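Dear Dr. H.,

I hope your travels went smoothly. While you were away I took the liberty of generating a structure for the chain from your last submission, since the lab meeting agenda had it listed for discussion. I wanted you to have the full record in hand beforehand rather than looking at slides cold. The sequence, exactly as received, is reproduced here:
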Amino acid sequence: MEHPGQVSNSGDLIWRRVALVWSRGDPGPTPEDDAICTFDIANITAGGIDGSWTPTDYDTCDVAFRTFATGISLIQNGSHVAKELRYYRMQFASPMTELRRFVPSGPPEHIEPLAIPGTGIGDTLPLQVAFSVTERTAVPRHWGRFYLPGMTDTFSGGGAGRWTQQLVNTIVAHTDTLYASLAAAEFFPVVVSTQVDKVLAGSLMGVTYIQADDIPDVIRRRRSSISTHTVIQGP
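The corresponding predicted structure, in token form, is as follows:
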């Protein structure tokens, strides 16, 4: 990874992008759009990346992600319901250009229904508040991250503006269990990169550590789109 020449930019690398989808309840007249976290998973067979996934492969990953979603539901508000997993086929474009770095994935190749509601104690925080988990790789400038929705005020540190240590430890433990379960079956979480040293080059980097802290993040696109009370006042 020190030089672009060390990274393959061929179209041979094929993996799956897994979208974990939550529906979000809302007091307004229509429901909010879904909250989504994505995970990139490489299937390793005989020491190489296997782009062909079988029904058994999907079943194996479904079990691991269902366990993860169930664990996370214990600290989410009931307004958030993990409703499904979607698996998209991902592949680098060859040749890769600034405007076309991936082959269009098309519709999901596999969808797994979940229906796991949050059961955490406490009121939901504003919809755009999220818990961030960093996926560390061997290359510091190429780390990944996902943002979990639906945390309750019980874990907001008693109004201190930070997550509690209990919440941080719990989410890291659930994520570690998820990644370890996948890796044990030779499905490895990876971070996707499309350039090195400003040169276009496709690569998949293994996740070496999970990192999280007590600082909340704000995901603006998850902001509620429906107001239930609006005031406009002129001079």
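Two observations you may find useful: The CA atoms of residues 32 and 225 lie 7 Å apart. The two ends are 60 Å apart (CA to CA).

With kind regards,
E. W.
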